[in-house]
Every structure is written in C-alpha cells, then in structure tokens.
Amino acid sequence: MQPGMMTFRDVLDIIERRLWVLVITAVLITGSAAVIAAIWPATYRSSATILIEDQEIPPEFVMATVTTFAEKRIESIRQRIMSTTRLLEIINQFDLYKEERERQSTEEVIEKMRENIILTPISANVKDPRRVDRSASTTIAFTLSYDGRVPGTVQRVATKLTSLFLEENLRVRKRQTMETTKFLEDEMNKVGEELFRVEKTIAAFKQKHINELPELYQANLQMLSSLEREIMRMDEQRSGLKDREAYLQSQLTNLSPYLEKEKQAERLEILKETLASLESRFTGQHPDVVKTKAEIETLEREVTDSLANDAQRQDRPDNPAYLSVYTQVEGIKIEYETINRQIEELRQQKDEYQRRIETTPKIEQIYNAMLTERSNTQLKYNDLMRKFMEARVAHGLEKEQKGERFTLIDPARVPEKPFKPNRMAILLIGLVLGLGTGASLAALLEYSDHSVRTVESLTVATKLPVLAGIPAIMTEGDQKRSHNRRVTFTVVTVFTFVAGIVAFHYMVMDLDILWAKINRFIGKQMIF
Fold first, then answer.
1. Residue 18: CB atoms within 10 Å
2. Residue 74 to residue 172: CA distance in whole angstroms
C-alpha cells in the first residue's frame, strides 16, 4: 500500500482484499472461545440467607449473657465449620471431589472446598443509641454459598452448611450461657462462704469484746462518770462516819461499862464537890474536911482497883448508856467497813470501765475494718447474686430460643443456571478479540504490501502524471472464482451466525427465556 490520503473507498477496497484474513482469523479465535466456553465445566452456586434477629424481650428487662458482636460470632462459627474434621465429614457424606481426591492430597481437597464456601455479610447503617447524630454499620444478615458442579449436590451441601451454622450458633450460645451461669454460681458460692466466714469472725470478735465495742463507748463514759460520782459520795459518807466514830469514842471513854463503877464515880464526884465546899469554909484540920478527904482516898483506891480488874472480868457490860454508845460505835465500824468494800468494788468497776474506754479506739479500728470487709463482701455477693439470676433468666431465654438468633429466611435452592463461567462474556471477548486480531493482521499485511492498485497511488509513487488508466479485465475464470468466494463467505457467515445462536441457546440462555425478557423490556419501555 502506498502512503497518502486514504478515503472511505480505499478502506472498503482493503476490506474486500483482506476479507478472508479478517474472516478466517475472527472465525478461528471466536471458535476457540466457543470451544473454551463449551468445554469449561459449569460451576453452580447455591446460597442461603440467614437473618440475625435481635432477642424478643427488650434488653432492659432481660440482659443476654452472650454479648459478642455478630461479626465475631459468625467468624468464630465459620472457623469451627471450616475445620478439617467437619469438612472431611461433609466430603465423605456427599462424595465430593471424586477426581480431585484421586490426584490430590486430603489437605489440598479440603483447601479447595474452603475456597468453594463463601460467606458474605450483609450490613446496614443503624443509629447508635448512645450518639443521636451518629450511625454505625452493623451486620444484620449473611449469605452462605457453596460452589460445585452438580446442582443437586450443591444445594444439599449448602443446606448442610446452613444447618451446621444454625446448630453451631445455638450450641455456642447455650454453652456460653451455661458456662456463664455455672461460673457465676461457683463465684457466688465462694463469696457466700467468705461472707459466712467474715460473719462468724465478727460474731466471735463481738462476743470476746462485747463491752468494748464502739456502740457502747458513750454508755461506758456515762457509767464511768456515774461511778466516779458514787465513789465521791461514798467517800464523803465514809468521812462522816469517821468523824461520828471519833465523837462517840470520846463519849465512850467517859462512860463505865458497869453500873457499880458508875455509882463509885458519881459518889467520888459528889465527895469532891463536898470537899471543895468544906475547904472553902473550914481549915484543913477541920474534922469534916479530914473525914471527907479520907472517904475520897478510900473511894479512889476502890475505883483504881476496879479499873485494874476490868480487864479480867468476863461479865457483859451492864451500863445502858455505855452499851448505847458502844453499839453505835460498832455499827459505825461495820458501816465503815461496808463502805470501804463498796468503794473498792466501785473502784474496780471504774478501772474496768476506764480500761474499756481506753481499749475502744483500737477495738473500733479492728471492728470497722471487719465491718468494711463484710460490707464489701456483701456487696460483691449481692452483685454476683443479681448477675447469677440474670444469667439464669438469660439461659431460659436461650433454651426457649427467644434471645438473639440466626433465622433462615432464604433456604438454599437447586441452581437453575451455572454461576460460572460466563459463556456469553467468553464468546463476546472471543468475537471482539477475533475481529480485532483479524483487523490488525489485515492492516499489517496491507501495510507491508507495496503494490500499486490505483491511479492516485501511481501518481504518488512516480511523481509523474498518469495519462490513462486501464480497468481490471475480468475473465470467465476470475468471475467464477469471485462468485465462489462470495458463496463461500455467505455460507461461512450463515454457519457462524447459526452456530452462535445454537451456542447461545445451549451455553448461555434458552432462546425462549431471552425472547420473554426482550418482550418484558419492550413492555416496560412502552409503559414509560
């Protein structure tokens, strides 16, 4: 081809000259794509949709014990379902991957099955109750799919996987609620035993220090003050008794225990008074004075002898006056001793109350520490009791399946058409690639061909004017060959078109279904 300006006619001439290259290349590549689409094994996908439903009873009434996020729980269940043991059981149950098991190891087959199991979460924006102006994305459902070559088997495997997910979720939630309840019960029993021990220790401590407890501090102070006042009162009473005893003792020394001695004393007193009267009137030699003195001396000797014999006398005193004073003195002595004993007892009580008051701060510190320990232990026990009761209610909620649960809303169905390969896409890619390759090859051949086929090409090539042009002279053989080429092209085109329609019908979509979709689309367009 000679360089120069190319017209539309030139393009048509090139297509006519290189038509076979274009057609053959397009047919070969498109045919190869059709063969690939035909022999590529069909893969079917069966999917089930599982909804994550919230618990029926509001959380403010019954708090669930399973508080993990749905994504985390789904992934945890997925790891359990995807375990080697579980997948191997499913493979053996449904006799999957026969050819692969003959050529590959068990680990490779299991890994292939893991790749064929697809879990797709479905999220939604939910308003966060803690933030009025903010919403969060949360998983509300998920789709569980399985890819395989046999539609019925694919559906059964997907159903099996779905049931395993539902059963595992129930089992996990029940196990968690049971473990939570058992743990809280054990902890509550431990704390209950600790609380009993603390109560027992406090009771023993109160029994041992019953009079030194802080609540008796004011009573002990009042009792101590009362004892001090009582001791002072009795001390004053004792002092009064001492003074009265001294007074009575002085009276007792002037009294004789016996009446005879009392008479001698009275006679001696009278004689002394008479002698004093006589001496005031007479001299010492007066007979009356001498006589009176003699009587006094005689009586004094008798009194002295009587006093000497008093110690040896065993007779009871018979002087009423003496006995009266003596009895009072003895009564005072007895009362004095009684008061002494009472004062001693009161002082002992005072010392005891003083000791209690002095000991109370230390006892109070220990007692308050024990009360604090009991209070903390009681609070912990009450908290565990509350949580235990909530866990029991939550366990009942899970047993009756009224808590958060997985609900199958779209069960796995037998797939009607393969999920892959997309044969239409393969055919279209093959067609585009064939046409593009054919066009590129035709352009390459045309570019490398330096033949002169037109007057314009000759003028450009020689830089000389062309005087005349002789058109191509078609012989009978040339016309026959041209006719054969047109017939062949028409046959190939018709065959390719028919083969494409047949391939579309069997590998992509039934023509009846396609026609129904086209009619539906046209109907919608006419409505609008």
1. 20
2. 11
* pLDDT > 70: percent of the chain: 70
Higher per-residue pLDDT: 61 or 336: 336
Q: For residues 311 and 425, what is the distance between their CA atoms, to the nearest angstrom?
A: 154
Mean pLDDT of 225-253: 86
Structure tokens at 495: 């065959």
Contact 379, 387 (CB under 8 A): no
Helix (H, G, I), strand (E, B) or coil at 136: strand
**Mean pLDDT along residues 313-320:** 57
Q: Is domain 214-384 in CATH 1.10.287, yes or no?
A: yes
Q: Determine the residue type at 335.
A: E
> 153: closest CA among 49, 41, 44?
44
Q: Are 406 and 54 in contact (CB under 8 A)?
A: no
Instruction: Give the residue from 235, 275, 263, 260 showing the smallest Cα distance to 315.
Output: 260
User: What residue spans define the domains of the chain?
Assistant: 8-40+421-527, 214-384
DSSP-derived letter for residue 249 is: H
Whole-angstrom distance, CA of residue 36 vs CA of residue 426: 8
Going through 372-486 in order, the beta strands assigned E by DSSP cover: 405-410
Integer Cα distance of 243 and 423 in angstroms: 137
pLDDT for residue 117 = 94
Check: CB of residue 125 under 8 Å from CB of residue 106: no
> 66 pLDDT exceeds 50?
no
Residue with tokens 């094994």: 41
Phi then psi for residue 119, to 5 deg, are: -115, 120
Q: Residue for token digits 């498109």? A: 30
Q: Please say whether the beta carbons of 381 and 265 come within 8 A.
A: no
CB distance 207 to 403 below 8 Å: no
CB 115 within 8 A of CB 97: no
Task: Give 444-477 pLDDT, tens digit per residue.
Answer: 776 776 565 666 666 666 666 766 666 666 677 7
Give the C-alpha separation, 371 to 363, whole Å. Answer: 12
- The pLDDT of 167-188, averaged and rounded, is 85
* Between 433 and 508, the higher pLDDT residue: 433
DSSP state of 212: S
Please check whether residue 421 is in contact with residue 228, taking contact to mean a CB–CB distance below 8 angstroms.
no
Distance in angstroms (rounded) separating the CA atoms of residues 327 and 74: 108
Helical spans, DSSP H, in 257-319: 259-279, 287-310
Structure tokens at 141: 């459902």
Question: What does the pLDDT look like over 263-285, one tens digit per residue?
Answer: 556 666 776 777 777 777 777 67
- pLDDT band, very low/low/confident/very high, at 193 (cuts 50, 70, 90): very high
Q: What DSSP character marks residue 153? A: H
Quote the CA–CA distance of 199 and 263 in Å, as a whole number.
Answer: 83
